[in-house]
Design goal:
single chain, about 100 residues, alpha+beta, two-stranded antiparallel ribbon, 6 strands, about 25% strand
């Protein structure tokens, strides 16, 4: 076998859980302020990370995600800025800006 032939997975120890995500992947926290949400649905149309509830408000499908520009886009397109996206490590606000 040639050196490096096994690819990047060769460095993973036996028995480790492989998720397909980089170990140092940035994670973002998604939140919707339902008191502000007017139920426009723009966020759900822009990003699969959001859905509309039966009461007409948006909510994140998951509270924490691997960084994804569509989540940032959803926060930016919300007409009342009810969606926030923040970095889980630093707490820094990613969107809206």
């Amino acid at each position: 076998m040639e050196d490096g032939h096994a690819g990047p997975w060769a460095a993973i120890p036996a028995g480790a859980v492989v998720t397909g995500e980089p170990a140092a992947a940035d994670r973002w926290r998604l939140a919707v302020d339902t008191a502000l949400c007017i139920g426009s649905g723009a966020c759900a149309g822009v990003s699969a990370h959001f859905l509309m509830t039966q009461d007409g408000h948006a909510e994140p499908r998951e509270d924490v995600i691997v960084a994804d520009d569509t989540a940032r886009d959803a926060a930016e397109c919300c007409p009342v800025e009810a969606i926030t996206v923040s970095d889980t490590r630093t707490g820094e606000l990613i969107a809206p800006v």
